[in-house]
C-alpha cells in the first residue's frame, strides 16, 4: 500500500495489501461483461480477483477494515476494486449502471441485474448436456471440451454433496464417484457411433470403469490413428489417379 498511516504495517500476503504492481486501470481479465454472458464473466473475474487475494471483498467475507488496515487504506482498496471491475464491463452495460464506491455493491448489483436464476440456469445447462453430441464436423477434443465446460458450469450451481456426520462417512465420495460414472457414460453415448463402437465396448468392459479423462485419451488416440489412416488412403488414391489418368493436351 502506498497511502494511509497503516499501510506500511500491512503484510504482503494480506488481502488488504496493495503493491506498486496494482494499478487502477489494470485489465484483470480480457472477458467483458455484456447483457448475456454474466456467468462466464463472473467466473473469469472471480479467478482474477482470487489470484490477487481480493475476491473476499466482493463476496462479503471481508466487509470492513481491520487493523492495521485504516479507513484510508479501505477506501483505496474499494476504489481499486471498483476500477478493476468497471474495466471488465462493456460500454453497453456500463451505461446502465450508477456510480459505485463499494466493490461488493457493484458486484451484487451486476449479479441481480444480469445473473440467471440458479433454477433456470441449471435447467438450461442440463438441456445443453442432453443435446451435446459429437458431429461429423467436430473432433473428439472439441466435443469433450464442450462437455467439460457444461459440467463445470453445472458444478458451480450444484456442488458435490458433502456429509460431516462422522469421520468415516463416505457419502460425499460415493456421490462424486456416481457423478463421474454418469459423465463417462454421457461422454461415450455422445460419440459418433460408427468409428468408436468397438473401443466404447472395450472401455465399458473395464473393471473398474476408467475416468472420463482416461476414456477421452483413449478415444482421441483412436481418432488420431484413424485420421492418419484416412490421410494415407487419400494420398494413395491421389497417387493412383495420377498414374492411371490419361495424358491429354
Write the layout of secondary structure elements.
Elements: H1 38-51, H2 55-58, H3 71-86, H4 91-94, H5 103-114, H6 118-131, H7 140-157, H8 171-189, H9 193-204, H10 212-244
Question: What features would you describe in this structure?
Answer:
This protein has 249 residues and is mainly alpha-helical. The protein folds into 2 domains: 7-114, no CATH class; 118-238, no CATH class. The protein has helices at 38-51, 55-58, 71-86, 91-94, 103-114, 118-131, 140-157, 171-189, 193-204, 212-244. Helix 6 runs antiparallel to helix 7, helix 8 (171-189) packs parallel to helix 10 and helix 9 (193-204) runs antiparallel to helix 10 (212-244). The longest helix is centred in the C-terminal third of the chain and has 33 residues, at 212-244.
Give the structure's gist in a few sentences.
This protein is an all-alpha fold and 249 residues long. Helices cover 59% and strands 0% of the residues.
> Which descriptor suits the 3D outline?
elongated
Following the backbone from N to C, one meets helices and strands in this order, namely HHHHHHHHHH
Main beta sheet: strand number and arrangement?
none
Counting DSSP E segments of at least 2 residues, the number of strands comes to: 0
Name the helicity range: 55-70%
Q: Gap between N and C termini, in Å? A: 81 Å
Residue stretches low in confidence (pLDDT < 50, at least 5 long) are: 1-7, 229-249
Number of domains: 2
Name the beta content range.
under 5%
pLDDT average, as an integer? 86
Structural class: mainly alpha
Number of helices: 10
Please compute the radius of gyration using only Cα atoms.
26 Å
Amino acid at each position: 500500500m502506498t497511502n494511509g498511516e497503516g499501510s506500511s504495517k500491512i503484510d504482503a500476503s494480506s488481502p488488504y495489501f496493495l503493491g506498486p504492481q496494482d494499478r487502477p486501470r489494470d485489465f484483470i481479465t480480457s472477458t467483458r461483461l455484456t447483457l448475456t454472458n454474466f456467468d462466464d464473466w463472473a467466473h473469469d473475474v472471480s479467478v482474477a480477483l482470487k489470484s490477487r487475494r481480493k475476491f473476499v471483498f466482493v463476496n462479503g467475507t471481508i466487509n470492513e477494515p481491520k487493523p492495521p488496515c485504516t479507513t484510508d487504506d479501505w477506501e483505496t482498496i474499494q476504489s481499486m476494486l471498483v476500477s478493476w471491475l468497471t474495466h471488465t464491463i462493456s460500454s453497453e452495460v456500463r451505461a446502465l449502471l450508477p456510480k459505485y464506491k463499494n466493490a461488493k455493491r457493484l458486484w451484487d448489483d451486476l449479479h441481480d441485474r444480469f445473473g440467471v436464476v440458479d433454477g433456470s440456469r441449471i435447467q438450461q445447462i442440463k438441456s445443453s448436456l442432453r443435446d451435446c453430441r459429437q458431429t461429423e464436423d467436430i473432433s473428439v477434443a472439441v466435443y469433450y471440451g464442450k462437455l467439460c465446460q457444461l459440467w463445470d458450469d453445472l458444478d458451480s450451481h450444484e456442488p458435490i454433496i458433502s456429509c460431516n456426520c462422522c469421520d468415516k462417512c463416505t457419502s460425499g465420495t460415493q456421490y462424486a464417484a456416481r457423478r463421474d460414472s454418469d459423465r463417462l457414460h454421457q461422454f461415450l453415448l455422445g460419440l459418433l457411433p460408427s468409428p468408436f463402437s468397438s473401443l466404447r465396448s472395450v472401455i465399458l468392459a473395464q473393471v473398474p470403469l476408467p475416468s472420463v479423462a482416461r476414456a477421452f485419451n483413449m478415444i482421441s488416440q483412436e481418432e488420431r490413428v484413424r485420421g492418419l489412416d484416412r490421410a494415407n488412403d487419400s494420398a494413395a488414391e491421389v497417387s493412383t489417379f495420377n498414374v492411371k489418368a490419361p495424358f491429354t493436351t
